[in-house]
Amino acid sequence: MFNIFSSYIYEQLFSLNIEKIKKEILNLRSEDKGKIVSNHGGWQSQNFKIVNKNFESLFNNINLSVKEIEKNLGLKNKLSLQNYWCNINYLGSFNMPHEHHGATISGVYYVNTPKNSGNIVFMNKNLDPFYQKINVYNEYNSSTFKVEAKENLCILFPSYLKHYVEPNLNKKERISISFNYG
After folding, report:
1. Which range marks the domain in which residue 139 is found?
2. What is the pLDDT of residue 141?
3. Which of 43, 59, 92, 137 has the greatest number of CB atoms lying within 10 Å of its CB?
4. pLDDT tens string 8-41
């Protein structure tokens, strides 16, 4: 047996000044009423295409990770940042299942992740009609894959991977930045 049509999830723990990034996101929230896309409750900023000076260090790190994925995927063209947005999930807030159409790589960077504030869950669309009983879950038969949200963690994944964010069960805010490269 051999694998076909594999997907990836890339994780890297950064060592950035989270407080500076968090402060800027909270400032943005005070100036922007937010929008609703996949979020149910919480706040999602407008889309940005130009990197905020307070996020330059973050996106310099992300750019290096994206280059590594480009190399592993054998892409012909270099990818560049298409857009990014900030997220704040309050108690009970979550994000419904969605994909990031029009991009190649999507990702999330976690700024504030109190305990039980919601992990990201990836869905295997190929197993939608797969209704067999499973004895042991593995890469061939799992319908979901969960990644624990941790402060300073950056996760990159193919934009076609359907995913959602679990509800925040903590009274403290879960704060993240999401982005697309294409």
Report:
1. 10-181
2. 83
3. 43
4. 999 999 999 999 999 999 999 999 999 999 999 9
